[in-house]
Write a structure and sequence with these properties.
The complex is a heterodimer.
Chain A: H1 2-18, H2 23-47, E1 55-63, E2 68-74, H3 76-99, H4 104-123, H5 127-148, H6 153-182, H7 196-209, H8 219-225, H9 228-253, H10 255-282, H11 286-305, H12 310-341, H13 357-370, H14 377-392, H15 394-419, H16 436-454, H17 457-460, H18 471-475
Antiparallel strand pairs in A: 1-2
Chain B: H1 9-31, H2 34-62, E1 67-69, E2 74-76, H3 78-99, H4 107-124, H5 130-148, H6 155-186, H7 191-197, H8 203-220, H9 228-235, H10 238-263, H11 268-291, H12 296-316, H13 320-351, H14 363-366, H15 368-382, H16 388-402, H17 406-432, H18 451-469, H19 471-482
Antiparallel strand pairs in B: 1-2
Classes of the chains: A mainly alpha, B mainly alpha.
């Protein structure tokens, strides 16, 4: 089952690359594969027992002398993260089909390949396998930004690759040391370690991916220069690979260093949270605001994780899903605005609400959820995170709460700069409202957000079966 | 009745079949009519390499116990057999790659020398005394000197041949001198006899050991013995470069492992450090120099220096795991090398000019198969997932970790990080250049598709990716091979 979830997009990617279809047909095939993937995930969801630990496991020895195996399976929280992946990626494929990318076969194949590798990251129960999927994500992203990106794409890809590969290679060294010292690369069989250097190797790799201050140098260029749907996947889903890694490897395998460095990590995350929120408030276009808000949210999620208690970790997962859906919708909406105006800079935007009720409604709903209005899923997530942080020290939750105010400021600024005020110079009078196909792309995301807002406990109560004491719970004091 | 020694014909079969192929190809170019010459010699050479590979596989299968042959001049064991299989495979792919060369004259000589070089290497990897070691080394080197200078109408090719001859001869003489010193110190030329002589820290022996390492370092193009590599790789006919980068490296590194482990176990404290230092030097020189290259063949030449560094880490580990790491690494590395030079050769034939990063621009879109293949090879060199390059590096680092050489892991990781720049530079040239910069094939249309070259590339891709998925069987083979060494 789990293997099928990984292989379906990869096989579809091969099919899209190899079959001599015209671009549109290739895109349609990719979209069908994406929808099939969503169905498959729903089937997995129905088979899943949220009161138990690792399930749907599939294990085969890969090479035994170093103790490496192909070992995949789901925990509650990783099943949700995988669900986020399949939904956001499918939506992104649909958007790419709508926007009509050049060299459609290559493009859609790469998107599918990316989907498969992200699902792989969320299921891997072996260190080396995790690394394989983690790095495999980078291969399509490099080309997706480098070939189909904006005017400064070469610089953006170079920065992105240098940052992430530096992190990844540190992680490779850490994996080798951890795996060999434990005589197995299995995340299930291996014990814990108290080696600070190995711990830092993993931590930095995930801090780059998230990103957490001060490893965020790649962020804005990458999010601004990628095609909107790639930015949606990057900020919505790929960054969650860091969440999974922090939870499944850093917190689960390094209990002592985690305790020791808890305050340091929280401090960096807090600085990043405030800093990114302020930058988001000053940013000149939709993409940059969303990029910095994404960094702020990832900092908050990291704070939740490193509160090291049940409330905070539950909140981090809820917030991961909320942020994944919100930032994916925002990037896609930014893409739609760019299609109509040719730019996402606030200077040329404004007044788009008049005569475009659908766009206004969608952007407004997403924005309101993003600023964590009470009753929204983001509010639920942030509340849990702050409650968890309160257990560590009230100061952390005060700063965290202050960041929610900042979030309200930059989100409202974004909404009003795009929708309200006088008509901007880039907004043509006749620029159309959201078209039905675009509606079909964004509405599922917004609907999911509303459903989760109504029932956040669906996530928070099912991510970690408390009575079984899985890794995250074990690590908590 | 004169008593004759029993000869183990099976052990000799891989070498003999290549020698036979060489002879037939050479004679064929004289005796066959002109219209047959274009394909007779390559066909014979190809058959020779395949036969040698099959015989070597049989030897591998039937030699669970290593056996010393003909007064301990060479051995029949799995290490030599596995190396011979890899060399034969590399040779067969090279023949397919070279087939489409627009070579008008010297066709017979070219393939005869290629088969002879292969035969020399196959013999070289089974040698177990200093005499046969030198014999094997000179045998394949002389063939390669001529092969490098084969394109007599190109000045670069002549220059490459001459340079390789001079530097190579220097390397060989260092090796020979080292052998003489080792013989002087121990009175023995057999590897295991040298170990048994127990000369300890005799200065003569140590000087000889150092010179042996240097001599083999020349052939493996490890820094600081690599100076010839970029010029020769760039100037030689691309098919020859492909063969040298894959097969010569296999031969030199396998022999280095064998000599050091079998003949100098007592001095292992010294030679492991020496090899480790050479490894780091190769990583540093190879990667930093590759950063500034514009010519793709030069770039790949420096990349081969850096990969020699990685593989020497495995040698320096001086352990069974290290041996396995080396033999595993050689398999995807050989495939990636031949494959990437094959793509370069394809572009070269289109442009009829040296391939640089500039005129590689747009190849990825123009020739999707070759572009994607080149991408795979670059990912493999980088050590990215879905290629055997990652597993090779993992094993090398694991061997270093097990041996306690943590600083070699750090050096390897830093080297990998630097290497990303130029490998991704190739990918950038293939795919990321703006449309205006794409330069399609030269006017007059591209030459007809060369199916055999595509077979070479396809096989290389399959090996590169396949070695990622089928690690266990390959590591088992490597483990069986290494079992013939006394760790």
């Amino acid at each position: 089952m789990t293997t099928a979830l990984i292989l379906l997009p990869l096989a579809a990617a091969l099919a899209v690359w190899l079959l001599p279809l015209p671009g549109r047909a290739a895109g349609t095939l990719a979209l069908l594969a994406g929808l099939a993937e969503v169905v498959l995930w729903v089937v997995a969801l129905t088979q899943f027992d949220f009161d138990a630990g690792l399930q749907l496991r599939d294990e085969h020895s890969w090479f035994s002398d170093l103790g490496v195996s192909y070992d995949v399976g789901f925990y509650g929280f990783s099943l949700f993260l995988a669900g986020l992946t399949v939904v956001v990626c499918t939506v992104a494929i649909a958007y790419a089909l709508w926007a009509g990318r050049d060299r459609g076969r290559a493009y859609h194949g790469l998107l599918l390949f990316l989907t498969g590798s992200i699902v792989g990251v969320f299921t891997a129960q072996d260190l080396l396998l995790f690394y394989v999927f983690f790095e495999a994500m980078l291969i399509p992203i490099y080309v997706l930004i480098g070939v189909w990106g904006g005017p400064r794409r070469v610089r953006a890809t170079a920065t992105f690759v240098i940052y992430t590969m530096a992190g990844s290679l540190l992680m490779l060294a850490a994996i080798i040391v951890l795996g060999l010292s434990q005589d197995t690369f299995s995340l299930i069989d291996s014990g814990t370690s108290s080696n600070d250097w190995v711990f830092l190797g993993f931590l930095v790799a995930f801090a780059v991916k998230a990103p957490i201050f001060p490893f965020h140098g790649w962020l804005v260029d990458a999010y601004r220069e990628s095609p909107p749907e790639v930015a949606a996947i990057l900020s919505g889903v790929v960054s969650k690979a860091a969440v999974y890694g922090l939870l499944r490897i850093v917190i689960a395998k390094f209990p002592e260093p985690v305790q020791e460095y808890q305050s340091t990590i929280l401090a960096f995350a807090t600085v990043g949270l405030v800093y990114a929120s302020i930058l988001a408030f000053r940013a000149p276009d939709i993409r940059s605001v969303t990029a910095y808000s994404s960094m702020a949210q990832m900092s908050l999620i990291t704070m939740g994780l490193f509160s090291l208690n049940e409330l905070g970790v539950d909140g981090a997962i809820v917030q991961s899903l909320a942020h994944g859906l919100v930032s994916a919708s925002l990037f896609l909406l930014a893409g739609m605005v760019e299609l109509r105006t040719g730019s996402s800079a606030f200077a040329g935007l404004g007044g788009m609400a008049r005569g475009r009720p659908l766009l206004a409604t969608l952007l407004m709903t997403t924005g309101i959820i993003a600023l964590a209005v009470p009753g929204s899923v983001a509010f639920a997530g942030e509340f849990l995170i702050l409650a968890g942080l309160y257990g560590v020290g009230w100061g952390w939750s005060v700063v965290g709460a202050a960041a929610i105010v900042l979030a309200a400021m930059y989100m409202l600024r974004l909404i009003s700069a795009v929708l309200h005020a006088a008509r901007g110079r880039d907004v043509a009078e006749g620029a159309p409202d959201v078209r039905p196909f675009e509606l079909a792309i964004v509405v599922p995301l917004v609907t999911l957000l509303l459903v989760l807002s109504a029932w956040p406990a669906a996530i928070s109560e099912r991510s970690f079966p408390s009575q079984l004491g899985n890794e995250a719970a074990e690590a908590t004091p | 009745m004169i008593p004759t020694p029993t000869v183990d014909w099976l052990a000799l079969a891989p070498t003999l079949s290549l020698l036979a192929a060489s002879g037939i190809a050479l004679l064929g170019s004289v005796l066959t009519p002109a219209w047959m010459r274009r394909w007779f010699a390559p066909l014979v050479a190809f058959a020779g390499f395949i036969t040698a590979g099959v015989f070597a596989a049989v030897v591998f299968d039937e030699s669970a116990q290593a056996r010393s042959l003909i007064a301990e001049s060479f051995t029949r064991d799995r290490l030599g057999a596995l190396a011979a299989v890899i060399i034969a495979g590399a040779g067969a792919l090279t023949v397919l790659l070279a087939w489409g060369d627009s070579r008008r004259d010297h066709v017979g000589e070219y393939y005869a020398l290629l088969a002879a070089a292969g035969g020399g290497m196959v013999f070289f990897v089974t040698s177990t005394n200093l005499m046969t070691l030198f014999l094997g080394l000179e045998w394949f080197s002389i063939a390669l000197y001529v092969l490098c200078a084969m394109d007599t109408h190109r000045e670069a090719s002549l220059e490459a041949g001459l340079k390789y001859l001079i530097v190579g001869a220097f390397g060989s003489s260092v090796l020979l001198f080292g052998s003489a010193l080792v013989y002087g110190a121990t009175g023995e030329i057999g590897f295991s006899a040298i170990a048994d002589a127990g000369a300890g820290d005799d200065v003569l022996l140590l000087a000889g050991l150092a010179m042996l390492i240097a001599g083999l370092g020349f052939k493996a193009s490890a820094a600081p013995f690599h100076m010839w590599t970029p010029d020769v790789y760039q100037g030689a006919p691309t098919s020859v470069t492909a063969f040298m980068s894959a097969a010569t490296k296999v031969a030199a590194l396998v022999v280095m492992l064998r000599v050091l482990v079998v003949a100098f176990p007592e001095q292992s404290d010294l030679w492991t450090v020496t090899v480790a230092v050479i490894a780091v030097a190769s990583l540093a020189v190879g990667n930093f120099a590759a950063l500034v290259q514009r010519d793709v063949k030069r770039l790949l030449a420096y990349s081969s220096v850096s990969h020699a560094g990685f593989m020497l880490i495995a040698v320096a580990a001086n352990s069974e795991l290290g041996g396995k790491a080396l033999l595993y690494y050689l398999i995807p590395y050989g495939a990636m090398s031949i494959g990437s030079f094959a793509v370069v050769a394809a572009r070269e034939r289109e442009l009829e000019a040296p391939v640089t990063l500039e005129n590689l621009g747009g190849l990825g879109w123009e020739r999707p198969f070759l572009g994607a293949a080149m991408w795979v090879f670059m990912l493999g060199f980088m050590g990215m997932p879905l290629t055997g390059g990652l597993i090779g590096k993992l094993y090398v680092f694991a061997a270093a970790y097990e041996a306690g050489w943590w600083w070699l892991i750090i050096a390897g990781v830093i080297a990998t990080a630097i290497s990303l720049y130029y490998y991704l530079g190739v990918v950038r040239a293939l795919y990321l250049r703006p449309a205006a910069e794409l330069r399609p094939a030269v006017a007059g249309g591209s030459p007809p598709l060369d199916p055999l070259l595509h077979v070479t590339v396809l096989v290389s891709v399959v090996v590169t990716i396949g070695s990622f998925f089928f690690v266990q069987p390959l590591i088992d083979l490597a483990g069986d091979a290494v079992a013939s060494l006394p760790f």
